[in-house]
Design a protein that fits this description.
By secondary structure, the protein is mainly alpha-helical. The two termini are 18 Å apart. Bound molecules: zinc ion. Zinc ion binds next to helix 3.
Amino acid sequence: MMIPIRCFSCGQVVGDKWEEYNTRVNQNKEDSGKVLEDLKVSRYCCRRMLVSHVDLIDDVINYSRK
Ligand SMILES: [Zn+2]
């Protein structure tokens, strides 16, 4: 699905960091930890939001009703 807007544990906004994180880590093959530090995601509760996210919205949307 889409990345949650805020961290489940502390409430920091993480939704706006997904696009850059995904591009840099999965396309540019940069180190995940360094990208998270550049994005100023320091707490591990927020880091897990980005590291563990699987973007399924484009697959699931095919099964939605009109
Ligand atoms: Zn957090």
